[in-house]
Amino acid sequence: MRVRLVLAAGVLLASAAVAPLAHAEGAGGRTGGPVPDGPAATGDSRTLDDLSVYGYGTVGEDSTVTLSGMYRCLDDSAGPVFVGSTLVQGVRSTGIGGTRAVCDGHLHEWVNTAVVKDPAYRPGAATVRAALMQLTTGEAGLPEPGYLATEDASVELR
User: How much is the pTM?
Assistant: First the structure.
């Protein structure tokens, strides 16, 4: 139980404290980031960990927010890796889920979902701050987050 609480806290911390990166919007509404025909697709282990956010998110009638994108990570032997995301619209900022990453050097899609009410998010312009974060054991024996990649992307909520 204690380990689950610490892991959850790490994911929330990762989704709340990401540094912005500039990426140009690409085809299909996706922002810059991992591409399928990169060196990792051919097995080159020198490719860096990477993360992207699709240029759109959804808001359901029940206030369910869904955000997604792509990631690639190479090694999770030092500790588990997660994709965390935060949605910002106006002055409102909320962590939207967390996904456990598979670090095998291949591209994977991430999808994070949360029900957000009072006040609910609305269709329109927003920002997604995403982080590919690894939990490693710190000096005190507690998990500490380490950032493998971050993305700060403009999105359109639909």
Answer: 0.72
